[in-house]
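Pilot study result, target chain (232 residues):
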Amino acid sequence: MSSEPGRALVTGSSSGIGLAVAALLLEQGWDVVGVDLAPPALEHPCFSPVTADLLDGEAAENVARDCGRVDALVHAAGVLRVAPLGKQDPLDAELMWRLHVDAASRIANVIVPRMADAGSGRVVIIGSRVSRGIAGRSQYAATKAALASLARSWAAEVVARGVTVNVVSPAATQTAMLDDPARASTAPRLPPIGRLIQPGEVASLVAYLLSPAAAPITGQDIQVCGGASLAP
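Predicted structure:
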């Protein structure tokens, strides 16, 4: 990686963690291609919005092919559907799998080999602490656990070619996802620090992992948990 910020592709850039990541990278001097189905929430001379439905696998692949050279990929697009056994909707599982896992796979399948051929690149996927399992969210947890396995596998493939792949997994974060009516039956669990994680806090770690200083860090699932992982 060059010591100067390069060009980053950020999915889910119109809200939540994706928006926070895109905004911080722009502040740091990156050129950012922001991908979302919703209208762009940023205006900046170095920000290029792309409207795409990443639930459509072909659209996800087209985004990756059309974006040109990128030095970093951040997959932050996400959705949450919750239900206990006996009330689960297979369509919810499909929705989350397509957005979280299939979209990440299709985009990375195009972009990461380009990075490896160039001898440098950074990939960060937004996971979740829930990937370790939690009652009522098994479908969501399964997709986030799959992302951690994908990232570790990809990291092993490109570790000797200058590309790092990591997952950042927050606990409950203050985003619009918390207000989604689809999860009205389950209140977020406050971490032991007594408040929700802020999107900017997650974005700061993502930005570090994209930096030259983070070159030795790859294949990791890093928790931003506010102390939640300290419980026995």
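One observation from the pilot: The first helix runs from residue 16 to 27. A full batch analysis is planned for the follow-on phase.
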